[in-house]
Amino acid sequence: MADLKPNTEISFAGTFASSAFAACFAELCTIPLDTAKVRLQLQKKSNVVEEGTVVPKYQGMLGTVATIAREEGLMALWKGVVPGLHRQFLYGGLRIGLYEPVKVFFVGTEYLGDVSLFQKILAAMITGALAIAVANPTDLVKVRLQAEGNLLPGVTRRYSGALNAYYSIMKQEGLAALWTGLGPNIARNAIINAAELASYDQVKQTILKIPGFTDTVLTHLLAGLGAGFFAVCIGSPVDVVKSRMMGDSIYKSTFDCFIRTLKTEGPFAFYKGFLPNFGRLVIWNVIMFLTLEQAKKFFVTSD
């Protein structure tokens, strides 16, 4: 990214490897919050009665985490971790690995100076869309596994694990079913990738121009916080639509899911799970970018 010095370079393979590692590490640390986010997003109506009043089963980030842990066990918070790691290896490696080459394509190999914010956003949107087009099956399986809660006695789970889920979906629904929700997923990840990578790049570039700031962990931390904030504010509505389409087969299309959700639950439904999503993305980005900056040092070579 923009932090590499002129006399150093890093190969695509090196960027992919360091990005994939950083993304997988961040996923391991934050997937309980992601599981809580998915449950909140898929919750369509109140379904628990307390003292004559119907209230939602899942309430708030910490409340949802506590409910899942209490009813299903602590490890239920890591449901979907295997396809989650599959996803981060492919998606995380590709979206960041391709970001610099796409930026260079726009400005040219001989360009010196700061890349414009527009070009950064465009490059990040393209790489986010390309990466998730490859990784969509892993995202689908992750959401399906995370969506399963406690089942009634005698009812078996749809999938015994990640590999079984891939196989079952292909066998029962067809190969194309693995790309269910691709439309909103491309929209979501193009937007969020632009918010994350372009904002991280821009915030870091701005901070480094402030006297006293250098390319240190503090700079990476501040830039990561900015990236997470922009990502969750911009990407939450498409994230809700993506989770619902992947978690429930009743929707005919992205537009159908959007309209049904809007009509039955109102505009605020698109920000369901906002707090766990905010908490997860901010923490995820800080962990991922801090890890990435350190991991890249192992692959940087001097000219």
TrEMBL record:
Keywords: Membrane, Mitochondrion, Mitochondrion inner membrane, Repeat, Stress response, Transmembrane, Transmembrane helix, Transport. The keyword Cell wall biogenesis/degradation does not apply. One of its GO terms (cellular component) is mitochondrial inner membrane. It is a multi-pass membrane protein. It holds the Pfam family Mito_carr. Solcar repeats lie at residues 10-105, 115-206, 215-298. InterPro entries: MCP, MCP_dom_sf, MCP_transmembrane, Mito_Metabolite_Transporter. GO terms for molecular function: amino acid transmembrane transporter activity. It is found in: Mitochondrion inner membrane. Belongs to the mitochondrial carrier (TC 2.A.29) family. This is Mitochondrial uncoupling protein. It comes from Actinidia chinensis var. chinensis (Chinese soft-hair kiwi).
